[in-house]
Amino acid sequence: MHHLAHYAAAILGTSTQPRIVRESTTSTHWHENGFEVRQSISTYEFSDGVIIRRMLERDDYPPDETLLCAECWITYEVVRDGPAAAVVQPRRMTFDSTCREAFWLRFHTAPAAGSGICTTEGPPR
Question: Which domain of life is it from (predicted)?
Fold first, then answer.
């Protein structure tokens, strides 16, 4: 099994593996309740045969000043698994901000335990 976060990291350029071999993007926009909404849907094919779709939707509604991250809608979805050894889980992830997306990526792509990240061990002696 492969974690969806590793493919998302490659899509965002924070990892070179797995390798993207093909990408296509369509963009559209519309007006809703007096505000412009922009949506882009990108489809990525990886060298292991996996295909992932990422949808990003933003609007020009004035941001809430109390939020550190502007609201947007991000969805990753597995369109096709690779060979049997390249089954991707979870099948779909949705976020309401780039901050939540970034936290999820850091959590699932962090180095293994023992690297000093969130371990229960004390300091080295």
Answer: Bacteria
Model pLDDT for residues 75-109, shown as the tens digit of each residue: 999 999 988 667 899 999 999 999 999 999 999 98
Minimal CA–CA distance to 46: which of 84, 14, 6?
6
CB count in 10 Å sphere of residue 37: 16
In a domain, 79, yes or no: yes
Q: How far apart are CA 39 and CA 55, in angstroms?
A: 7
- The Cα 124–Cα 4 span in angstroms is 33
Check: CB of residue 109 under 8 Å from CB of residue 6.
Answer: yes
User: What pTM, to 2 d.p., does this model score?
Assistant: 0.81
Q: Classify 26 as helix, strand or coil.
A: strand
Partners of 23 in beta bridges: 44
Full domain range(s) for residue 90:
2-109
Residue type, 108: H
